[in-house]
Design goal:
Largest sheet: 7 strands, parallel
CATH topology of the largest domain: Rossmann fold
Radius of gyration: 22 Å
Strand content: 15-25%
Strand order of the largest sheet: 3-2-1-4-5-6-7
Number of helices: 18
Distance between the termini: 33 Å
Helix content: 40-55%
CATH class of the largest domain: Alpha Beta
Structural class: alpha/beta
Oligomer: single chain
Shape: globular
Number of domains: 2
């Protein structure tokens, strides 16, 4: 009954899907591309070589998959690889990282016919859904076609669990048909078992295995030299509303401070630039910076670029992790720790609850319950360099201690 109702709702939603894509395309024109793929029609020619398929919904999951894809290519040298995603930014990131290693495509929406066309076209030997991707029709079709499908690097927050439990009669039968759920933590595993997982293992978080690029770190350190300020504060992967809170809290702007703001979504670059300008602050855009000395009058560097987060971290003294100030659940704090940058978190960390809790306990990160406390702590650490350096060193140790999840995950695959 629940799957029948799900099918009815999908049919009713069909025309609105394309209205949604058109609406999104006003700010991000790439949403107008590859519509046929979203319905399960693909241009690539059939290939008889065995194929491994990995689905990473957007940018974060795609970047996190890098060490896993590298190890998969070593373990399965005769296989082709397919990476699917759902967003244009995720697709662009996949093409940037894996264009020479894998075919890149959109996963179709969860219509039975579209899913059927997708599986018939690619015929994967097995598939990996990254983190928290539960598509009932896709999972059931894979099981019906004897295609092992794993939820890899799986996580599930308490908030998401409550949401899924409202539709448990739809979700639980699907989760039970997964070939395996390879969870990040004991807490994630327990929640996924409540959702119906019958084959669950705890492997850790593969994001710890995604080592920062040494050349990018070196370039970021060169940026730090060019900045010529005693204090560089990074707001990393900020979400809507967070930039405004930080800017308004920093009313008494220290003369020796440069704030770097890197919005999470590229379609917000222009609006964030306007927020800065509206407050009378001098802003320099990364796209217009020649990587030489930043003029003394510049107060904010706007990171309007993609794929340079490692450089931004390495050029900073402290990092505030976006998505944690307002209730977005936080963005990834692991990369900052792995580079040795002290991490400041707001109250919302449910997307990275285990990593955040352990980073705080390891003294690699500090958490405040509101933006004023975060800025106050930043100024304290700027004034107490010994404590700041200790946090950075703790971050390096914390990141190193949690590596190895990729190899553990591989041991459960066919």
């Amino acid at each position: 009954m629940s799957r029948w109702l799900y099918h009815v709702l999908l049919c009713c939603a069909f025309p609105f899907i394309f209205l949604y894509l058109l609406k999104r395309s006003k700010r991000q024109p790439a949403y107008r591309q590859y519509w046929l793929e979203r319905l399960g029609f693909y241009r690539s020619s059939p290939n008889q070589a065995p194929l491994i398929w990995l689905h990473a919904v957007s940018v974060g999951e795609t970047r996190a998959a890098a060490p896993l894809i590298a190890e998969l290519k070593t373990k399965y040298p005769q296989h082709r690889f397919l990476i699917t995603c759902m967003t244009p930014t995720g697709r662009a990131t996949a093409e940037e990282l894996f264009a020479e290693q894998a075919e890149i495509a959109y996963l179709p929406y969860d219509y039975p016919s579209a899913v059927g066309r997708f599986l018939k076209h690619y015929q994967p030997q097995f598939g990996l859904l990254m983190e928290t991707e539960i598509w009932p029709n896709l999972i059931h079709r894979c099981a019906e076609h004897d295609i092992p499908l794993f939820l890899a690097n799986a996580r599930l927050s308490e908030k998401s669990l409550k949401g899924y439990q409202k539709i448990k009669y739809l979700v639980q039968p699907a989760v039970a048909r997964l070939a395996g759920v390879l969870a990040q933590s004991q807490q994630d595993a327990a929640r996924l078992q409540q959702l119906g997982s019958e084959h669950t293992a705890i492997v850790g978080n593969i994001k710890f295995d995604n080592l920062p690029d040494e050349n990018a770190i070196l370039q970021g350190k060169n940026w730090r030299t060019a900045i010529e300020r005693s204090k560089v504060l990074l707001l990393a992967s900020s979400r809507d509303g967070e930039e405004e809170l930080i800017l308004d809290t920093l009313k008494d702007w220290p003369a020796d401070l440069l704030l770097i703001i890197v919005p999470r979504h590229p379609q917000r670059f222009a609006s964030v630039e306007q927020l800065i300008a509206d407050r009378g602050l001098a802003v320099l855009k990364r796209s217009e910076w020649d990587e030489k000395f930043i003029p003394n009058g510049v107060q904010v560097l706007l990171g309007d670029s993609m794929g340079e987060m490692t450089r931004y971290y390495a050029s900073s003294d402290l990092a505030i992790i976006g998505g944690s100030i307002l209730p977005f659940g936080s963005q990834n704090l692991i990369e900052a720790c792995a580079i040795g940058i002290p991490v400041l978190l707001g109250p919302s960390t449910y997307n990275f609850s285990q990593a955040a809790t352990e980073a705080i306990a390891s003294h690699a990160a500090w958490q405040g319950d509101h933006v004023h406390a975060i800025i106050q702590q930043a100024m304290y650490l700027f004034a107490h360099q010994t404590e700041s350096r200790a946090m950075g060193e703790a971050g390096l140790a914390f990141a190193a201690a949690h590596r190895g999840a990729t190899q553990r995950l591989l041991s459960y695959l066919p």
